[in-house]
Amino acid sequence: MANIREVAKQAGVSVATVSRVLNHPESVSATTMELVLATMEKMQYTPNGFARSLALNRSSTIALLIPNILNPLYPQIAKGVEDVAHQKGYNILLCNTEENKEKERDYLDMLIEKRVGGFILTSSQLENKDLQKIKNQNVPFVMVGRNIEDIDANMVFTDYYMGAYQITQHLIEVGYSKIAHITGSLNQIENLEKRRGYEKALEEAGISLQSQYIVEGNNEIEGGYLGAKKLLKSKEKPQAIFAANDLMAIGAIDAIKSSGLHIPEDVAIVGFDDITMAALIEPKLTTISQPVYKMGLIAARLLFESIENGQQEDGFQQKIFLQPKLKVRKSCGHENRVREIFN
Amino acid sequence: MANIREVAKQAGVSVATVSRVLNHPESVSATTMELVLATMEKMQYTPNGFARSLALNRSSTIALLIPNILNPLYPQIAKGVEDVAHQKGYNILLCNTEENKEKERDYLDMLIEKRVGGFILTSSQLENKDLQKIKNQNVPFVMVGRNIEDIDANMVFTDYYMGAYQITQHLIEVGYSKIAHITGSLNQIENLEKRRGYEKALEEAGISLQSQYIVEGNNEIEGGYLGAKKLLKSKEKPQAIFAANDLMAIGAIDAIKSSGLHIPEDVAIVGFDDITMAALIEPKLTTISQPVYKMGLIAARLLFESIENGQQEDGFQQKIFLQPKLKVRKSCGHENRVREIFN
DNA sequence: AAGTAATATGTAATGGGTTACATCAGGGGG
DNA sequence: CCCCCTGATGTAACCCATTACATATTACTT
């Protein structure tokens, strides 16, 4: 593969001139320009990105860490990030951490070594000392979907606590009192937040918590399925189930249907996330919508702001707080109950 | 950020020794080893990936190009690729081409410049001259999901023609004759293949093609929705619809239901891909399953084989052909019809 | 015609690693 | 006691681009 020196020699100019053709075309005469471009074309020259990055000390690559690419939530975030990154001429290194803290750390080290321009960490499980490592290397990063109090970092997230509180409250308003919760992986802080919201709503309504009504899922369809099966076996079957994400809600719906029960008549079910499928399954799923695509966009914009202005000093970091929104559909039985009330 | 020279000076050794600690630990004495590692730790030294890649002329990064990350098919492929790549210590550059040939080309150029170790191109729209460009740069690549005859390249794909043929034939066997087809984007070769399979099955059954029964979709839910709406308006409503992918089938189901019709009694519907949702929507979708995760795995393995053995000579390339599989569920009305036949 | 500014181009240092080759110290053999 | 081999380490060239600074050329002033 030809390099800049060979091109220069072939074209009878210096390497500086060749480099200028690519980087500062305005400073090269028209004839030289043409000659060099023709030579490049002829020799199939492609500048070496490593050498360029080394010389410039920047990379036009950012990293996106997500816990599970198979959860449709994350491709949406990725899309938001990609849209911004591509427009800026950046590429994205995709890292699927599988909700595994060790894998996430491994990736972190690889990426720091690769000198990525910045990180977007979604639902990260990293600890402060890991984040501090990134800060020490002075690489900008943005946290998505997780709020950490004790480190100064760019963040964009929705209020999981509030979302969970709202949807649980909605179930209570509709008339249920035996409300179960299938949690997400409890090593993710956001799932603890959701559980807290659920508990708060029950508490405020004077409904006492029942430990057998809280089961831990794994954020995936299967976890919802198993969780629901387990709940249906409890001696007092719950009237409604709040799954900590839509994927689990879908699994739960499958479990309930396959037990011959009807939704929402026998058991109501609600989710969290509002993935595309939520509005398409039967019954349509009541859920909490978070503007995920937008979160990706915003996260990427924040990141590029840091990259471009290099302002990593503490206090300049932004925390962007988006409001979740309740989407009432059929699965929670809202309409039926309302009808009962009116009749 | 400290560099290798500073570490060497601080530790009182040469840069070669520091480098050896990282790359050839067996050739360094235990005491020196310890000293150097401690110094690195103290100085928070992280080797510069650019410099290393430049010196070694390789990058431990591969690129994955996909047409649409929001289509759940592609995250599955990505997962397969990622699983292999991570095991090999590689990172993945994710490029979402949005089914846009220009964007795909742009990415190609960026990636060649970045000196990625290889490409995985899924449902690529690139032309031979583009692929030739990659070959000229001697970068290994694997095509996924698309069969190109006239270039010698690693490929892994399922037989779209056969899959479409099978599922159309199945609809015919069940008893339908007015069978419509919502195609995928017709600038993707695989969708032409699918249409060809559909036409072949009809032709063999002696059913004449009706142009109003073929509408072009866009591979997305929305395209299926619009396509179905259009088909339902035709003067002779089709009895069955074959959507070229599950996403469009799901959109079509939504359209049919919202028109107050029943599936499969009024209109049967089948898809292609067997995404997770296919088995979860109501009615469960009859579709063609392709082993996507496995395709990702295989593609990645092929790619690493090329990367490691460097064998880019023509004739060494493999074409791996996977068989699609018909999954009969409820949406095609198979069971009902069978019952009719037996009664 | 000399001086100066503007334009175009070249030279060489620089970025931070890797590694072939050179060197040196210590152990073993004779 | 000397030589050779081995293992450990150092020196310096190399990977390939970018760019500050130096130089050369042309054009314009007065």
Task: Report on this structure.
Chain A is of the alpha/beta class. Chain A has three domains: 4-55, 434 Repressor (Amino-terminal Domain) (Orthogonal Bundle); 60-159 and 292-323, 3-Layer(aba) Sandwich (Rossmann fold); 160-290 and 327-342, Rossmann fold, CATH 3.40.50.2300. Chain A is built from 13 helices and twelve strands. In chain A, the strands form three sheets. In chain A, strands 2-1-3-4-5-11 form a six-stranded parallel sheet, sandwiched between helices. Chains A and B meet through helix 4, helix 5, strand 2, helix 6 and helix 11 of A and helix 4, helix 5, strand 2, helix 6 and helix 11 of B. Strand 2 (91-96) of chain A pairs antiparallel with strand 2 of chain B, so a sheet runs across the interface.
Concise overview:
Chain A has 343 residues and is α/β, with parallel strands linked by helices. Chain A folds into three domains: 4-55, lambda repressor-like DNA-binding domains (434 Repressor (Amino-terminal Domain), Orthogonal Bundle); 60-159 and 292-323, Response regulator (Rossmann fold, 3-Layer(aba) Sandwich); 160-290 and 327-342, Rossmann fold.
Query: What is the CATH top level name of the largest domain in chain A?
Result: Alpha Beta
Oligomer: homodimer
Mean pLDDT of chain A: 92
Report the end-to-end length of chain A measured between terminal Cα atoms: 80 Å
Low-confidence residue ranges of chain A: 337-343
Structural class of chain A: alpha/beta
Taking strands numbered 1, 2, ... along the chain, how are they ordered across the largest sheet of chain A?
Answer: 2-1-3-4-5-11
The succession of helices and strands of chain A, N to C, reads HHHHEHEHEHEEHEHEHEHEEHEEH
The number of helical segments of chain A is 13
User: Which chain pair shows the most residues in contact?
Assistant: A-B, 53 and 52 residues
Strand content of chain A: 5-15%
Q: Quick one: CATH superfamily of the largest domain in chain A?
A: Response regulator
Tally of DSSP β-strands of chain A: 12
**Given the C-alpha coordinates, what overall shape of chain A results?**
elongated
* CATH hierarchy: architecture of the largest domain in chain A: 3-Layer(aba) Sandwich
